[in-house]
């Protein structure tokens, strides 16, 4: 995953990894060299930093959203449960709903149609969410277009052609709150080991916690949060539709120290393919994008089924039994 470096955090030195950095401005300009660097990052790493220089509107919206989501998650749980939809892509989901996840979450798939039936403080800030989601969607489609260019995929073969606005998909915006653990609780994972389900993930977070596993060292290393940079990663569906030329890297979210002394917030836009797009996974099984999405989410919610299906959580990326044993923490949250 790039050079391993030692980084000081809160008087503690931790292992972090250096990811490639790609310029959004150069991608938007159609720079062929930057497109080639993007392809290399997605092929060998599956993760990269996206320099958001020039994306001032999106960064301003992100700053405003930080305050909104902190206020939202600070509300009593019974009040937030008014937004619960028993859905993987809509409404509020309390910590512990999914296996290996220790975070509050609120998702907003319905915003693509500018329709969001959510109560409480979030409902008053609809335009912020619309604006952020629109900008993140545009950026992820630009990335797909440049990947298509770099792979010489023309016309209907381009990755972007299976992400049309007028076709149903499960693209969604998710706001995450990883709870602090400063009162004697048993330390837990923010989110267990996994690959992402869809096409691309656009992530903004100012705090440490994201880790990736190096294919070279088979060890975990933190991804350093960088000012005015997003972290982008390839998801399972893009890996499969690329014929496994691109890599959906395994990652997780963990406390930096034994106890997480502060609340951690992140916002992610998950770009996903049209629901009826078909592809083969690396085990040669055919799925639609929605079938893969639903099956993987069902697995997250069913701890009894995990031991025999751990490979799906990591996108059929791992065959090493030693790695599979660590796919999800022993403790279910």
UniProtKB/TrEMBL annotation:
<dbReference type="InterPro" id="IPR005123">
    <property type="entry name" value="Oxoglu/Fe-dep_dioxygenase_dom"/>
</dbReference>
<comment type="similarity">
    <text>Belongs to the iron/ascorbate-dependent oxidoreductase family.</text>
</comment>
<dbReference type="InterPro" id="IPR027443">
    <property type="entry name" value="IPNS-like_sf"/>
</dbReference>
<protein>
    <recommendedName>
        <fullName>Fe2OG dioxygenase domain-containing protein</fullName>
    </recommendedName>
</protein>
<dbReference type="InterPro" id="IPR026992">
    <property type="entry name" value="DIOX_N"/>
</dbReference>
<dbReference type="Pfam" id="PF14226">
    <property type="entry name" value="DIOX_N"/>
</dbReference>
<keyword id="KW-0479">Metal-binding</keyword>
<feature type="domain" description="Fe2OG dioxygenase">
    <location>
        <begin position="168"/>
        <end position="273"/>
    </location>
</feature>
<feature type="region of interest" description="Disordered">
    <location>
        <begin position="80"/>
        <end position="104"/>
    </location>
</feature>
<dbReference type="InterPro" id="IPR050231">
    <property type="entry name" value="Iron_ascorbate_oxido_reductase"/>
</dbReference>
<keyword id="KW-0560">Oxidoreductase</keyword>
<dbReference type="Pfam" id="PF03171">
    <property type="entry name" value="2OG-FeII_Oxy"/>
</dbReference>
<keyword id="KW-0408">Iron</keyword>
<dbReference type="InterPro" id="IPR044861">
    <property type="entry name" value="IPNS-like_FE2OG_OXY"/>
</dbReference>
């Amino acid at each position: 995953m790039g050079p391993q470096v030692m980084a000081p955090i809160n008087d503690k030195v931790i292992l972090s990894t250096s990811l490639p950095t790609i310029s959004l401005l150069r991608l938007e300009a159609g720079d062929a060299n930057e497109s080639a660097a993007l392809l290399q990052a997605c092929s060998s790493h599956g993760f990269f930093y996206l320099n958001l220089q020039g994306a001032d509107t999106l960064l301003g919206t992100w700053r405003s959203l930080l305050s909104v989501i902190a206020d939202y998650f600070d509300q009593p749980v019974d009040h937030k449960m008014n937004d619960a939809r028993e859905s993987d892509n809509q409404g509020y989901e309390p910590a512990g709903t999914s296996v290996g996840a220790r975070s509050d979450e609120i998702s907003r798939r319905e915003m693509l149609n500018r329709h969001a039936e959510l109560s409480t403080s979030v409902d008053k800030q609809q335009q912020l969410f619309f604006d952020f989601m629109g900008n993140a969607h545009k950026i992820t489609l630009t990335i797909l277009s440049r990947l298509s260019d770099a792979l010489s995929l023309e016309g209907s073969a381009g990755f972007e052609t299976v992400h049309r606005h007028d076709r149903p998909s499960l693209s969604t915006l998710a706001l995450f709150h990883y709870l602090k653990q400063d009162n004697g609780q048993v330390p837990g994972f923010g989110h267990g080991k996994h690959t992402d389900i869809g096409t691309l993930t656009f992530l903004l977070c100012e705090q440490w916690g994201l880790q990736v596993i190096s294919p070279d060292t088979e060890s975990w290393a933190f991804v350093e949060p960088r000012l005015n940079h997003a972290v982008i990663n390839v998801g399972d569906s893009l890996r499969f539709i690329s014929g496994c030329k691109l890599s959906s890297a395994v990652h997780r979210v963990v406390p930096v120290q034994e106890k997480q002394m502060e609340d951690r917030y992140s916002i992610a836009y998950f770009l996903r393919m049209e629901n009826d797009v078909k592809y083969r996974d690396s085990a040669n099984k055919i799925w639609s994008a929605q079938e893969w999405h639903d099956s993987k989410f069902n697995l997250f919610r069913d701890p009894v089924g995990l031991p025999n299906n751990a490979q799906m959580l990591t996108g059929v990326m791992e065959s090493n039994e030693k790695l599979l044993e660590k796919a999800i923490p022993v403790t279910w949250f």
